[in-house]
Structure prediction request, 273 residues.
Amino acid sequence: MRPTKSRGTKSHTEISAPRSTKSKNRGSKPGHGLGNQVIWGQHAAIAALENPKRTIHHVYASPKTAARLKIESLAAQKKAKLDILDPSELDRLLPDGTSHQGLAVSCAPLPQTFLDEITSPAKGLILVLDQITDPHNVGAMFRLAKAFNAKAVIMQSRHAPPLFGATAKVAVGTLETVPTVLVTNIANTLLSLQNAGWRVTGLAGEANISLEQAFQRSDAEVVVMGAEGPGLRPRVRDCCDQLAKIPMPGGAESLNVSTAAAIALYEAVRNLA
Prediction:
């Protein structure tokens, strides 16, 4: 596949797949409105290119990045169009301040993972995010889920950031390997998990027991994290088997949600039967 030089227009949220042209010199112009996801950053984009489940429409790379990472070969394997761009052209294509590292891909969403695919057998760890909307926090959660070998991350299909762009960049490729289950109702999902044999623990600063007390020997643990500030919503709290807190003898009022999740996941994994 022959890479082409391309100019592009700026998009605040996405790059749509450019139309091909017959002219070798004119190249293609990314536009708007086709709804393709965009993943940028070398780790995230390479992981997407190497994921057999991910359909890639178009690859954009700087000359140095394309040569060093053998991008032409990866694009050809995916049957994706490839444009070689100056870094300044990539800057214009992507949102302001994007750290693209000379590489971006427009792609299709990953195939959906359903709840019943991860609940049986009831063994291991699942991370649930209750309306956490910051893409950097959500991206960090996927890295944690991968680090602690979680079976999946469960999120609401709304009130959550899109699983591309900044989220994918922070997740550094783990979006491609950690199954994501999108649900319409977190509380009902927790009840389904309980019925399938999972113990559900929500983190709450006002809880009466510590994580160490909560995570006694168990085969199947669900850790539920709420948004910074509001925390867990009332019905989500009510649908947890228990609420637990992180002891903070130094007196800090709260922790960043991804920091709190790291502590909770470590404690949960340490006590898995």
Observations:
- The CA atoms of residues 1 and 73 lie 8 Å apart.
- The mean pLDDT is 87.
- The two ends are 51 Å apart (CA to CA).
